[in-house]
Amino acid sequence: MAHVLMTVTGADAIALTDGTTHPTGFWAEELVELHRGLVAAGHTVDVATPGGARPTVDPGSLGGDSADELRAYLASIDELIAHPRALADVKDGEYDAIALPGGHGPMVDLAADADLGRLLVDAVDRDAVVGVLCHGPAGLLSAVRADGSFAFAGRRLAVFTDEEEHQGGLRDASPYFVESRLRDLGAIVESGEPWSVTVVADGTLVSGQNPQSSVATAQRLVEVLAAR
What we know:
- This protein is an alpha/beta fold.
- The protein contains eight helices and eleven strands.
- The chain has a seven-stranded mixed β-sheet, with helices on both faces. The protein has a two-stranded antiparallel sheet with strand order 2-3.
- The termini are close together.
C-alpha cells in the first residue's frame, strides 16, 4: 500500500484585488473525500503544511446538506489535521504520492512554497503519483526547476476553471486565475462544463476540476495507485 502526503494550505485568508480580504483555507469536501478514498483503499495518509501550521477549513465549504457529515469526518481525523508535518521537514522520495486538496488557500501559500516545489519536482522525476483537486493545482505552480522550467509543462490536467471562478468563485476580485497561470506555464488544461464532474489522468498525474469532482478524483487516484 502507498504512503501518501496530503499537502494542505496553511492560509486562512486571501487578499483580493478590491483591497479586501476573504476568509479561506482548505475545502472540506475535497480533503474529506480524498482522505476517505485513500484510507478505504488501505493507503496511509500524512498531512503537511507550510511551517507545520494547523490548517483551517474554509467556512464556505461547511454549508449545505452535507455540512454535518463533513464536520463529523473532520472531527474524526482531527488528531491528524491538528499536528501536520512541516513541508520543509519532508525528504525527497519519502512518499509514494502527493495529494493536494483545494480551497482558495493554496493560491496564497502553496503556489510559491519552495519546499512543495522541491517535492513536486522530485515526484515528477521519479514518476510518483500526484493528485490535485479544484484549486489544489495552484500548488503545482511551485514546481519550477533550477533552470526556470515548469515541471508540469506539457502535462494534461483539470483545474477549477476561470469560468467557474467568474461564476461562483472570487470573480473579478481574484488575485489571479489558476487555470490561466497553468496554461501560461505550458500545462494542457482539459476542462469540462462548469460544475461538471471532470477528472483527467495523465499517467501518474490525476486531477479533478471542482468540488463536484471530489469523489471521482479520489477513485481515480486510488486506481492509479493500484496500478503502480
